[in-house]
User: What shape does this take?
Amino acid sequence: MAEKFSKKSEAPIEIYGKKYSGIREAIEKLKPDVTEVTIRARKRYDWTPEEMFGFEKRDKRKEKSEEKKKRERHHTDEDIIVEGVKYNSISEACEKYDINPTVVYNRLAQNKNNRWTIESAILTPKRDRSVVVNGKKYKSSYAAFKEIGKVSFTTYQGRISMGKSLEESLGLVDMNQDN
Assistant: This one.
């Protein structure tokens, strides 16, 4: 009878001090409540074997901390120099220039065509997307829509894409009125 899976050699795995020849053997012997696909996905994200098999709960704070360290580590091979001053971390430089580190990390992570250097990511101010409608300032056009929009979101989006004014898109102005 042919086996479902190829007989590739797997790395041994140790769970609570007991060694197994691989993930498949551990699954057969331990009968975890999670699938093999889930276990292998968790392995790619560096979960401990006990967490991979669902025997221990994954600490979300630890996971977020590890993600943050990975992001910071990604840029630690470069010196953090902004306007001639050297900083110990991107976060430290962000604090000095009053910019949210998440904005800088996102710019660096989505760095297609090498558009962003660490310095430019820190020095470029965040875009102001605020709008004024009927004399009141909103953080963005979407924030204005949520607060005072009189049409469905789909209608609002469609009108914006057709080039209508913000007031028309929000349904505040009658579009059929002759001027």
In short: The chain is about 45% helix and 10% strand.
